[in-house]
Amino acid sequence: MSRTFLGMPPFPAAAREALADPQLRSNLAHATTTIRAKRAAVVAEVDDWESLRLRAAAIKDDVLLHLDEHLLRLEESLTARGAVVHWARTAEEASAVVAEVARAHGVDEVVKVKSMATQEVELNEHLAAQGISAWETDLAELIVQLGDDLPSHILVPAIHRNRAEIRAIFEREMGRVGRPAPDDLTDDPARLAEAARLHLREKFLRAKVGVSGANFAVADSGTLVVVESEGNGRMCLTLPEVLVSVVGIEKVVPSWTDLDVFLTLLPRSSTGERMNPYTSTWSGVTPGDGPQEVHVVLLDNGRSRALADEVGRQALRCIRCSACLNVCPVYERTGGHAYGSVYPGPIGAILNPLLKGVGHDEQTDSLPYASTLCGACFEACPVRIDIPSVLVDLRAQVVDAHRSGVPGPEALAMRAAAATFGSGRRLAAAERASALAGRAIDAVARITHRDRRVGGRRLIGRLPGPGAGWTDARDLPTPPEESFRAWWKRTDGGAR
């Protein structure tokens, strides 16, 4: 069974480990810089880019306000075109539907289109437990699967790997599960892609069941849409006799007119292309053409919880373009594994707590703090998700969720600060104590000859205890020897 994110440590611990890997940081810096430059070039070509962002956000917000109506319309349209619609409240229910379809057709393997929803519900692991192999056919997902690895990016799951590492994975693992890599394989990207094509071709040709997600679901026509760059998705969507699509309920759009907006925004924001090389659409069953049995699993798995959050529901606008990851200074330095989820980066930092709820586990509660709140993610988001505002709101929710019981060090510190700032007398006493501490630190620095200064102010080294978490990564200036209150009194408000 492949690895999962279960049991991942909180973000600070995972990030610290990632920061210690220079190869990972080099791979990430190169990849994100390249994608950012491509995106910026094609976005600049669109005169009304901001208008498109506003329109996309408005479409999504309207859909979310009337989600029940659009989903019922989608179900009606799909059913009229021969598809079987299933409603899944949880990840387990969604995986069970796919497994049941596979068992009904007596297969022990399925081929998969790249899908965040199926990763979210851990479909591969669920199928493996029942003796059914799920083969990833996207090149990056194939690399992750063969390497018994975890995805680290929404668009490019193997972004943390370089070409030499990929070649080694192919040479070592391909032969164990199918056609082996060529003996003369090099790390040239074209040769690596060729090896993947040859390896996957036999799986495409023998597969009876295909599994996909969907980038969009058009309610009025019952059309599902997958956009991709390689053509593997087209193979999975057309060759098998049976197709099962797992679709998040937030992926619905009312009409083809609305879809047009997103097909302009998505490729530019994700791959830096004017349009996707492959845009596949299908509506139920077409006799004699493509799969003759189609199932659509409409997945909730916490989306209703997110919808109920008045601030956070905007996260359900997300079209999984990954633009926020590629501009995020935190993601660029830590990579996606540190977020402990198939949804990494800024969108993962809000989407995971919204889907799962806060106050239940330390890993999820750490994610809203995995940000500098610089706002680059909002500027890049094609559907204008105000990620910094949602992060701040989620931080408040995390604090509120832990108010009962024994207060932690942070809560005690905040209570002490509130008590100090709530009284002029206590604040004056604290200022006097701070000034004494500043003089003492200066004296020790002179004796020990440890005199680090920035802008004329001496810096404190590593603090002990809880303060170490701050000074491990930041410079802390010494307290001033004279407070503003004391200066004001001494100078009569600056008069002399």
UniProtKB/TrEMBL annotation:
Location of the LUD domain: 73-299
GO biological process terms on file: lactate metabolic process
GO molecular function annotation: 4 iron, 4 sulfur cluster binding; metal ion binding
Keywords assigned by UniProt, alphabetized: 4Fe-4S, Electron transport, Iron, Iron-sulfur, Metal-binding, Repeat, Transport
4Fe-4S ferredoxin-type domain boundaries: 315-385
Region called Disordered, residue ranges: 465-496
PROSITE patterns registered for this protein in UniProt: 4FE4S_FER_1
Name of the protein in question: Iron-sulfur cluster-binding protein
